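TASK: fixed-backbone design
INPUT:
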């Protein structure tokens, strides 16, 4: 004769199998778009996408956006018209597939650019997924504001014997799109500054200019002997995009 525990286990198993068998696959296209720029794809390492149950945080799907940054004319030069797509089959995205038997409230998160830790931004939204109801085409687009700022020189803990120190940074949009004077992403619109901190002096700010190639910003300063922290920051007063990188160096 079977115990009550056996029957409870038996019916729980039946209900579990029934739920699995009635589950339907849902496809969700998720994309990450840089602020005032294009889509974050393979050329900069993509965006990490997580789809999670909003209540339990169970991960239902995860992956990296792959593909191109998209059609420049459609995204940046043409007026946006309701229901007219700005993406195509080559535009970067992550096509997630989730099995659900009933409506499920989820959180979708994007971390981008995934390979640029100092610039990485989290963007998220929440929505209901419905069994058998795909969200494809343009899909879910998460906005990623900011700039990717990479200090090229000085290198970390580099020591200088000269008092005139030159600073160099590579600065791009979050999709990797280049910045040039008078270009589509106009360096003249952005404020780029090097901020120098040391125990031996008051904080010093040096304006940096784009020169010597696209996305390349230069600056210089005369410094006394000491250890320094260098912060290079970029700001767009029109869109509010910001970006920062920092390092430390020495003057002997």
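OUTPUT:
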């Amino acid at each position: 004769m079977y115990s009550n525990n056996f029957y409870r286990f038996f019916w729980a198993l039946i209900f579990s199998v029934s739920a699995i068998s009635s589950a339907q696959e849902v496809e969700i296209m998720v994309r990450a778009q840089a602020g005032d720029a294009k889509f974050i794809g393979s050329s900069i390492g993509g965006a990490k996408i997580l789809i999670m149950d909003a209540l339990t945080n169970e991960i239902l799907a995860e992956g990296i956006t792959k593909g191109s940054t998209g059609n420049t004319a459609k995204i940046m030069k043409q007026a946006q018209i309701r229901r007219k797509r700005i993406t195509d089959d080559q535009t970067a995205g992550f096509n997630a597939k989730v099995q659900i038997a009933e409506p499920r409230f989820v959180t979708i998160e994007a971390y981008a650019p995934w390979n640029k830790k100092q610039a990485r931004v989290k963007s998220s939204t929440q929505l209901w997924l419905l069994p058998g109801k795909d969200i494809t085409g343009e899909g879910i687009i998460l906005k990623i504001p900011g700039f990717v700022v990479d200090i090229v020189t000085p290198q970390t803990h580099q020591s200088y014997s000269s008092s005139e120190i030159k600073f160099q940074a590579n600065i791009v949009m979050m999709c990797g799109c280049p910045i040039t004077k008078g270009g589509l992403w106009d360096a003249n619109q952005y404020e780029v500054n090097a901020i120098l901190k040391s125990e031996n002096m008051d904080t010093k700010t040096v304006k940096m200019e784009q020169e010597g190639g696209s996305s390349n910003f230069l600056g210089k300063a005369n410094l006394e002997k000491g250890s320094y922290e260098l912060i290079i920051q970029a700001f767009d007063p029109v869109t509010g995009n910001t970006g920062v990188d920092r390092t430390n160096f020495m003057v002997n």
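COMMENT: The helical segments are 4-22, 72-77.
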